[in-house]
DNA sequence: ATTTATTGATTGAATATGATTGACTTTGGT
DNA sequence: ACCAAAGTCAATCATATTCAATCAATAAAT
């Protein structure tokens, strides 16, 4: 058996079982302990596995980011619902803007079977978009600490060079009179630019964002449709529904 | 049996089984080891297969586990050495351009304790740069499938809006007369733009890249300093060292 | 007839392998 | 806590396999 085959086999074994003993690897591959150990040191150097006494375990790979989406907290499930709903507004052939943020990121897997062109300022989004084979453009700009969202004048200018059929934004505050708000003024500028250059705009927000007012103003309440889940008070619903489209997803 | 026939057969064998040994190929084709090896070198040059010790494996497709291994398989430690050396050329306060690619990515952890501003077209780079608290700007552009490198006219234009003290590029081919080359013309354009806007330029390449010529031209050999590890033949070293700076790291 | 291409055999070098050794780690009993 | 036995480890060695380079023989083309 070839070296590379054996190493692939070891990785395969580890994928099935979290920890595999050297002895078991010997049996499966028919190789001697020495050889297996050598393979393990190699695979460890390549940062693919972690050695433990008596065997090895799979190192969690950076590639397996998708688990990030699969987190099963209540919050994540809500985001997933909102994202799914948002994608129903997307048509084949659309050019869309995806704002940075986890909610918009959840849209990506559902976008896979539509033929769309996506522009985004979210770095984590790009990797996921590529993985799902979606044609992706990235605006330029300064990468913000923490979220790696692209912001700044360069980002705003770059957005100006595109026209979108639809844009999808995350937001921190939704308020009747103060409109949409977000903590970072630089991010607000980027969101505004996206709104300016898009035919129709959607804001994705869980119910906790309603009634909140954040530092930087993004837009008036009637400048974007809102997609959210149940939990918003009926009186608030009534008022806002008069000003803009408000999609509420039943839980 | 004709050469073509035999090579087709080899490819067919590889399609059935991800990895095939030289020995098995001999049996199937009736040819000698020498002949099979010659075929393999040819097929490897045509980028159809990848050789491994004792046999060959199919390149392309199967975006599963193999690629992960393949990617990290070669020269991981070498890349680390090259990256480390490259960082020694970086001064505090520099504005630098980091080309997409795994070698330049290895530079990032070592950049952490310098105060630099980094511009890059590599999406995976951005996350890492942010993690290490480095001030990061991203050029815009189209995200290339597979590597997520940013390319296209927008990328080239965006680079034009910056001036770098130093730029660090990965490269596929280094050839005395043909200079630096890379498979993707669009990536070549981006690299050229980086070279144009940088005071001093460094190419990071392992020794296997020397003597190679890839499809798209990037620059002449004297337009960038080269950082590599031992393994390059002394005669090649002599010749190239006359044309440009050539840093060779002892193993 | 001469050149060119293809092939198989041979070579020393590079690489991979299995067994052995002594040091280290874990386990289980006192 | 201690010790001893069993298991596991890295390092080393000799062997076996695989490699690229070279050579000579044969077949095809000029």
What would you say this structure looks like, in words?
Two copies of one chain form a homodimer. Chain A is of the alpha/beta class and 251 residues long. Chain A has two domains: 3-58, Arc Repressor Mutant, subunit A, CATH 1.10.10.10; 67-249, 3-Layer(aba) Sandwich (Rossmann fold), CATH 3.40.50. Helix content of chain A is 39%, strand content 25%. Chain A is built from nine helices and 15 strands. Chain A has helices at 3-16, 22-29, 33-45, 74-87, 102-111, 123-131, 153-159, 185-196, 234-243, and strands spanning 19-21, 49-52, 55-58, 95-98, 117-120, 135-138, 141-143, 150-151, 164-170, 173-175, 179-182, 198-204, 216-219, 225-229, 246-249. In chain A, the strands form four sheets. In chain A, strands 6-5-4-9-12-14-15 form a seven-stranded parallel beta sheet, sandwiched between helices. Chain A has a three-stranded antiparallel beta sheet with strand order 1-3-2. In chain A, strands 10-11-13 form a three-stranded antiparallel beta sheet. In chain A, helix 4 (74-87) packs across helix 5, helix 5 runs parallel beside helix 6 (123-131) and helix 7 runs parallel beside helix 8. Chain A is elongated, with a radius of gyration of 23 Å. Residues 61-72 of chain A have low confidence and may be disordered. Chain A binds chain B through residues 2-5, 7-8, 11-12, 15, 45-48, 61, 63, 123-124, 126-127, 129-130, 133, 135-146, 148, 150, 154, 158, 161, and chain B through 18-19, 21, 52-55, 57, 65-66, 68-69, 72-73, 76-77, 123-124, 126-127, 129-130, 133, 135-146, 148, 150, 154, 158, 161. Chain B binds a DNA duplex (30 and 30 nucleotides) through residues 3, 22-23, 31-35, 37-38, 41, 53-54. Chains A, B: Keywords: DNA-binding, Transcription, Transcription regulation. Chains A, B: Residues 3-58 form the HTH deoR-type domain. Chains A, B: This is Transcriptional regulator, DeoR family. Chains A, B: It comes from Gracilibacillus ureilyticus.
């Amino acid at each position: 058996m070839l070296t590379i085959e054996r190493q692939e086999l070891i990785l395969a074994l580890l994928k099935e079982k979290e920890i595999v003993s050297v002895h078991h690897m010997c049996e499966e591959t028919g190789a001697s302990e020495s050889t297996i150990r050598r393979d393990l040191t190699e695979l460890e150097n390549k940062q693919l596995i972690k050695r433990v006494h008596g065997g090895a375990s799979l190192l969690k790979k950076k590639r397996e980011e998708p688990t990030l989406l699969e987190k099963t907290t209540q919050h994540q499930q809500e985001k997933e619902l909102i994202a799914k709903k948002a994608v129903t507004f997307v048509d084949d052939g659309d050019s869309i803007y995806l704002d940075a943020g986890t909610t918009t990121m959840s849209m990506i897997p559902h976008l896979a079977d539509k033929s769309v062109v996506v522009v985004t300022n979210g770095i984590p989004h790009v990797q996921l978009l590529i993985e799902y084979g979606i044609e992706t453009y990235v605006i330029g700009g300064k990468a913000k600490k923490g979220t790696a969202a692209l912001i700044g004048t360069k980002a705003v200018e770059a957005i100006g060079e595109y026209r979108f059929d639809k844009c999808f934004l995350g937001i921190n505050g939704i308020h009747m009179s103060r409109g949409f708000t977000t903590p970072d003024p630089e991010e607000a500028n980027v969101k505004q630019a996206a709104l300016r250059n898009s035919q129709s705009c959607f804001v994705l927000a869980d119910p906790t964002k309603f009634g909140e007012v954040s530092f930087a103003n993004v837009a008036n309440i009637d400048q974007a449709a809102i997609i959210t889940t149940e939990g918003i008070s009926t009186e608030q619903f009534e008022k806002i529904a008069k000003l803009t489209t408000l999609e509420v997803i039943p839980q």
